[in-house]
Structures are given as C-alpha cells and as structure tokens.
Design brief:
GO terms for molecular function: peptidoglycan beta-N-acetylmuramidase activity. Keywords: Signal. The protein is built from 11 helices and 14 strands. It is an alpha/beta fold and 392 residues long. Strands 5-6-4-1-7-8-11 form a 7-stranded mixed β-sheet, sandwiched between helices. Strands 12-14-13 form a 3-stranded antiparallel β-sheet, with no helix packed on it.
C-alpha cells in the first residue's frame, strides 16, 4: 500500500494535480500617501485655523482633501491656489484669480497671479498651513516653487506648516545640471539637479535644513511620510497633475521635452498627446503629422497653433530620466538648415538653471560629454541631500 500511495502521488504530479497551491505570500502593502494617513495628522489640526495649498491632485481615496477635512470638522479658513488653479483647469502660465470656492464657500487665494507668495494678512488669518500637491520631480515644475513661498511666509509669520507627502514618479533618477543661483526664477528656485529624486516632503526638509528660506529656524515643519514607499518604485499618478501631463508617458518624457518650450517647436500642447510628440512645420526629423489647436484649460495659444506639423511620435517609446538626444538632434537639424533653434535663449537658461547646457549643445558637445560635466556636482548633491531622505 505504501508503494501504491507513492505511485499515486507521482501520477498526480505528472498530471499537475500534485502541484497544490502553497500558502500565498502576503501582498505588498499598498503605497499610502501622507494625506490618507489621517490618524497621523488630524490631531495636529484640532482647534487650528487652517489654510491649504492644494489642487485637483489633493485626494484622499476618491475624495478631495478639503471635503475630508471639512467632514472631520477642521476649520479651513482659506485655500491657496497654485499654477493651473485649485481645480487644475487653468492653462500653463495663465494667471489664477482669487475668489470663492463655489462648492464650499471657502476663500480661494491665488499664488499664481500678481503675487506668488501669501500676504501678511493672509498668513495672520491662519495658525497652520498644509501643502498637499502631487509633484513630478522635475525642478522646473512650479509646484515646489509655490511650496517654497508658502514655507517662507510661514517662517516669517510663525505659522506651523504641514506637508502631506506623495511619491515622486521620477524618484529613481538623479540627473541633469544643478541650478546656478544666477539663473534662479519661478521655474527653478533651488540649487538642485533638474531631476532631484526627492519627494516634496524630503525637499521641504532640505529647504528648511539648508536655510534656503530666511528665518528657517523659526519654521515649525512637520512632514507626514508616504507609507510603504521606496523611491525606486513605479508609481502611476491617479490624477493628472496638470492639463498637459495627462498620463505616465507624458510625465516620463517631461524632463527631456521641457527644454523645447524655449524653441519654436511643438511638443503637442493643443493636441491629445502633449509632451509625447515633437514637431515643426518647415522641416522635420520624423514623418508623424499633427496640428495643434486651441484647447481651453490646456493650451489656448499653443506653439504652431492651427499649423500642420511633422515630427516624432513618442507615445510608445521607452522613456525615463533625462534624454538629451531629442534636443541635441533637433538642434543639429536646425543648425544644418541655418535656422534659429533656441529662439528664447534666456528662458532655456532658466529651464536648465544654467547657460552651460545651451552653450554645450551649440558647441557640438555629445550627450556623453555633457553628462560627464555634471557628475562632480551630482555626486556632491547626493551627499548633501542624504540627511533629508525619508525613503530608501
């Protein structure tokens, strides 16, 4: 009988029946943004007059953070609106007006209009401010500049600040030129690489710790970290962070294609595929055809508006990090046609945070040579940021 049992098991194994399921390994805990960790920060809001710098990405599951906090009886006295507005429906660069939120009746205070910093009166009306916006980890994306100004105002007026952290979809990359403070602007305020590999929470800690704001020691800063997160993890954004970054591919290509904003080319603003195509109307590197048009809330006056353009379709390419080949190859084509590529050189230098990148491209340096020039500064920055990192 013993041998019969063994033979039966062997036969079952041959039929695939003996491969009985083993106990499943526990599933990895889901990434939990700081805003969803209510138990960690609701006690900090009790009895406080609260202001929020938020937009359409400020979600707790399927609900907006504002609605969740109101349901918990938090006293929200103001909502600060960054570029693209509180609802994320303003064009890039379009002024955002102050007003009143139609749903809640809470005052909306613009930080992307005549002033990009809260006023003294606005800060005196609050005891604590919250920053909760999904960033994409690229220095010239302006949400971190708005965070900087809010931190500065909070430090000056002794207002506590709470950052509800979120993952960085480009967090695995540390790349690009560091910003030279001679080129400091709203599209680059800190001496960090183009791809800094930090979350907004980590960056807030660094801004305070490195004293990139005045009176930094006065700022009572609290960061609620993302649970179960490591910076190398892939993170697909549940809500588009702005009208022209509608999907993961656009976000992955954005560090490389942002430089084209300083050229006469189109990167798809005014099409269903912004930051996923490159094209021009007079000569081209590819045969993909598209025509930018006015799209309210995304691109009312896009480059090459109503002009048939031809170029590259990048919707299916493998994208990630900083790829200089796009800007170098198109520059060389323009040079061969004796046409001006950087028609806004000052803006290019602001985007790059230095004049060196534009000059290196114009001098004909290869991507490898340009990258080599960044390495000492990137190595020093990697060490400088270490004390502020919250995630492996």
């Amino acid at each position: 009988m013993r041998w019969l049992s063994i033979l039966a098991l062997l036969w079952l194994a041959g039929c695939g029946v003996a491969n009985l399921p083993t106990q499943a390994e526990p599933a990895a805990a889901p990434i939990t943004p700081g805003a969803e960790r209510l138990a960690e920060y609701l006690p900090l809001l009790q009895g406080k007059r609260v202001g929020l710098l938020v937009n359409q990405t400020s979600r707790v599951g399927e609900q907006h953070l504002v609605d969740v906090l109101l349901a918990h009886q938090v006293n929200i006295v103001s909502i600060f609106a960054p570029e693209h507005g509180f609802r994320g429906d303003h064009d890039a660069g379009a002024s955002v007006s102050s007003g009143v939120d139609s749903k809640t009746g809470i005052p909306l205070l613009s930080l992307y209009g005549p002033s990009k910093a809260p006023s003294a009166a606005q800060m005196q009306a609050v005891d604590l401010v919250i920053f909760d916006i999904q960033d994409v980890g690229v220095r010239y994306y302006t949400y971190i500049s708005s965070m900087h100004y809010l931190m500065q105002a909070a430090a000056e007026h002794n207002v506590a600040m709470l950052v509800l952290d979120r993952p960085n979809p480009n967090g695995r990359y540390l790349d690009g030129p560091l910003l030279d403070l001679a080129y400091q602007s709203f599209v680059g305020m800190h001496p960090i690489p183009l791809l800094h590999g930090m979350t907004v929470g980590e960056l807030a800690l660094m801004i305070k710790g490195e004293r990139w704001i005045t009176q930094a020691e006065q700022l009572a800063l609290t960061v609620i970290p993302v649970a179960h997160y490591q910076r190398a993890m892939t993170y697909s954004l549940p809500v588009p962070p702005s009208p022209n970054l509608p999907n993961d591919q656009a976000i992955a290509l954005y560090p490389s294609l942002g430089f084209f904003e300083a050229t006469p080319l189109s990167v798809g603003r005014g099409t269903p595929m912004p930051f996923q195509v490159i094209g021009y109307d007079k000569f081209s590197l590819g045969d993909f055809n598209f025509t930018p048009v006015a799209t309210p809330g995304a691109a009312l006056n896009p480059p090459l508006k109503d002009t048939p353009s031809q170029g590259q379709d990048l919707r299916q390419v493998s994208a990630g990090g900083l790829d200089l080949s796009y800007v170098i190859n198109w520059y060389q084509l323009f040079a061969a046609q004796q046409a001006t590529f950087f028609n806004s050189p000052q803006f290019m230098d602001k985007l790059a945070g230095t004049a060196s990148l534009r000059q290196q491209i114009e001098q004909g340096l290869t991507e490898q040579q340009i990258r080599a020039s960044w390495q000492p500064a990137l190595k020093a920055f990697a060490a400088q940021r270490q004390p502020y990192l919250l995630y492996r």
